[in-house]
């Protein structure tokens, strides 16, 4: 009797488990394959595709090469190649005569080497927008470069050099697009600004901030700002094989700080049990070994993965459409690669370590510089508190050099700026799925928060994983075709920006 009762109970439990499993699988598959993708819409008025002549196609590449050859390097806030910055200002005047002579355009230099253009539109009822880019570049030690970093040399269809992806491609691309449009007698309806900062790589305090102060003094409000940042990423996000266009609707915060240990110097023949180097090395090693908490799901990154869920290969597509269940698994997967780990947490980068004065002298001081990039769900103070708790050594002094909280999240879908961007991306990048994302690097656009809520970080270029590694790295390059497409993007954008209709996104279950 007892055995048969247990058998009955067992088979009932098994039946309940199987029914539950089938129900769960049904929910997972239904959500995966009927995921309501909100698809942005745009005005049907297709923009005019500008056919460039052969001469113009060569001209735009030469314009970029000339810009790369001018070494506008920023070493620190105090140290920049101002000779090159001045030369760059003269260069663009020479290469873009229509821009600098048009009665529609007012140009001025701010902060010594930054440029602000105002392009007057015909419809003063339309709020102006801002196209931002930066002239300065990070240093490029020539060792290990296949091509000298400031030669602008062309190899196998690519233009090589520091700034070809970050950010002279956009500086020259924006001006070249405007030059071609003016040449064809184009008159924009919506006014717009072009802001070219000269110290973005070392904070933007002398360039972009001066542009903001000027516009604020004139009471200017902007419809939207477009700056560098994310791009059309091809194979960068694990599990998505096709190119996806990510528009940075926010950017991480940042803390740059020095950790210093001071100890009495002495003869190396009678060393103490721990020197300043040993104490500091142990402290920064603890920081590196104890990553900041995984914040996946507490910022806009979840929205990005859910919107792209149908683009992931099986079984990731099921995971992405069911983050209510699989979020812990996904956050572990994303930690594996630096580019996606930077999306799920505040990152800790040990970037400079200095100590020692002579091989037989106990070092009096050791200093390390650490750069944190903050996840949107954390504040500067929270990260500093966690860091203190991790270091746990009062001999390590902390001095914050600069810091700022994560930026506000700009609206998408029901935002004019986002829709204009999405429309232009579909025009030029043949319907690459578009989604909002977090820009893990920082940009000059962070200074514009009081001029608009609609700040977008997007460079119109397709980047593979190997391209992302070239930014601030070795052998930075852009293909001639990609640069021509970038110029076309800005030509289209300037035309698309003449609309003023925000269209409600329509739900669409098959195409993002
Ligand atoms: N854009 C560069 C330089 C920068 C750092 C911090 C703030 C603003 C700009 C970066 O993200 O590293
Ligand atoms: C491609 C992302 C760029 C981040 C800002 C910079 O390094 O200029
Ligand atoms: Zn940049
Ligand atoms: Zn940069």
From TrEMBL:
Keyword vocabulary terms for this entry: Hydrolase, Membrane, Metal-binding, Protease, Transmembrane, Transmembrane helix, Zinc
Annotated ranges, domain Peptidase M20 dimerisation: 250-395
The UniProt record lists the keyword Transmembrane: yes
Gene Ontology cellular component terms for the protein in this record: extracellular region
GO MF, one example: metal ion binding
Keyword Magnesium applies: no
Pfam family, any one: M20_dimer
Catalytic reaction list: N-hexadecanoyl-L-phenylalanine + H2O = hexadecanoate + L-phenylalanine; (9Z)-octadecenoate + glycine = N-(9Z-octadecenoyl)glycine + H2O; N-(9Z-octadecenoyl)-L-tyrosine + H2O = L-tyrosine + (9Z)-octadecenoate; N-(5Z,8Z,11Z,14Z-eicosatetraenoyl)-L-serine + H2O = (5Z,8Z,11Z,14Z)-eicosatetraenoate + L-serine
GO process annotations (BP): adaptive thermogenesis; amide biosynthetic process; amide catabolic process; amino acid metabolic process; lipid metabolic process; proteolysis
Regions that span the bilayer: 12-30
Pathway: Amino-acid metabolism; Lipid metabolism; fatty acid metabolism
InterPro entries (alphabetical): Bact_exopeptidase_dim_dom (IPR036264), Pept_M20A (IPR047177), Peptidase_M20 (IPR002933), Peptidase_M20_dimer (IPR011650)
Chain's role: Secreted enzyme that regulates the endogenous N-fatty acyl amino acid (NAAs) tissue and circulating levels by functioning as a bidirectional NAA synthase/hydrolase. It condenses free fatty acids and free amino acids to generate NAAs and bidirectionally catalyzes the reverse hydrolysis reaction. Some of these NAAs stimulate oxidative metabolism via mitochondrial uncoupling, increasing energy expenditure in a UPC1-independent manner. Thereby, this secreted protein may indirectly regulate whole body energy expenditure.
Protein family according to the UniProt entry: Belongs to the peptidase M20A family.
PANTHER family per record: N-FATTY-ACYL-AMINO ACID SYNTHASE/HYDROLASE PM20D1, N-FATTY-ACYL-AMINO ACID SYNTHASE_HYDROLASE PM20D1
Protein name stated in the entry: N-fatty-acyl-amino acid synthase/hydrolase PM20D1 isoform X1
Source species taxonomy: Eukaryota, Metazoa, Chordata, Craniata, Vertebrata
């Amino acid at each position: 009797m007892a055995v048969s009762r247990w058998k009955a109970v067992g088979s009932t439990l098994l039946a309940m488990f199987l029914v539950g499993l089938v129900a769960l699988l049904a929910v997972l598959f239904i959500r995966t394959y009927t995921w309501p993708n909100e698809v942005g819409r745009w005005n049907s008025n297709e923009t005019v595709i500008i056919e460039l002549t052969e001469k113009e196609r060569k001209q735009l590449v030469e314009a970029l090469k000339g810009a790369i050859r001018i070494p506008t390097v920023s070493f620190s806030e105090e140290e920049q190649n101002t000779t090159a910055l001045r030369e760059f200002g003269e260069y663009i005047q020479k290469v873009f005569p229509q821009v600098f002579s048009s009665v529609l355009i007012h140009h001025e230099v701010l902060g010594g080497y930054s440029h602000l253009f105002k392009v007057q539109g015909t419809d003063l009822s339309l709020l102006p927008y801002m196209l931002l880019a930066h002239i300065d570049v990070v240093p490029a030690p020539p060792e290990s470069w296949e091509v000298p970093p400031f030669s602008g040399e062309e190899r196998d269809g690519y233009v090589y050099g520091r700034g070809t992806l970050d950010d002279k491609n956009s500086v020259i691309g924006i001006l070249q697009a405007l030059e071609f449009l003016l040449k064809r007698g184009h008159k924009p309806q919506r006014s717009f600004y072009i802001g070219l900062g000269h110290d973005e790589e070392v904070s933007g305090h002398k360039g972009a901030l001066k542009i903001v102060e000027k516009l604020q003094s004139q009471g200017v409000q902007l419809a939207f700002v477009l700056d560098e940042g994310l791009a059309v990423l091809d194979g960068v996000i694990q599990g998505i094989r096709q190119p996806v266009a990510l528009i940075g609707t926010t950017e991480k915060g940042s803390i740059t700080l020095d950790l210093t240990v001071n100890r009495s110097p002495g003869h190396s023949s009678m060393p103490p049990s721990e020197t300043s180097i040993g104490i500091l090395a142990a402290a920064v090693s603890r920081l590196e070994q104890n990553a900041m908490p995984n914040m996946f799901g507490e910022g806009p990154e979840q929205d990005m993965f859910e919107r792209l869920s149908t683009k992931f290969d099986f079984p990731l597509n099921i995971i992405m459409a069911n983050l209510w269940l699989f979020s812990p698994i996904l956050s572990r997967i994303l930690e594996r690669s630096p580019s996606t780990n930077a999306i799920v947490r505040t990152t800790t980068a040990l970037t400079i370590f200095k100590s020692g004065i002579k091989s037989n002298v106990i070092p009096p001081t050791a200093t390390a510089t650490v750069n944190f990039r903050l996840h949107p769900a954390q504040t500067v103070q929270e990260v500093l508190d966690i860091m203190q708790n991790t270091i746990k050594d009062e001999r390590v002094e902390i001095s914050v050099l600069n810091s700022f909280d994560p930026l506000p999240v700009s609206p998408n879908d029901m935002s004019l700026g986002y829709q204009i961007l999405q429309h232009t991306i579909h025009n030029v990048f043949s319907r690459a799925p578009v989604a909002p994302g977090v820009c893990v690097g920082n940009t000059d656009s962070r200074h514009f928060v009081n001029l608009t809520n609609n700040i977008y970080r997007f460079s119109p270029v397709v980047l593979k994983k190997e391209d992302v590694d070239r930014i601030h790295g070795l052998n930075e390059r852009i293909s001639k075709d990609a640069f021509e497409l970038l110029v076309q993007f800005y030509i289209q954008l300037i035309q698309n920006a003449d609309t003023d209709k925000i269209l409600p996104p329509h739900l669409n279950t098959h195409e993002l």
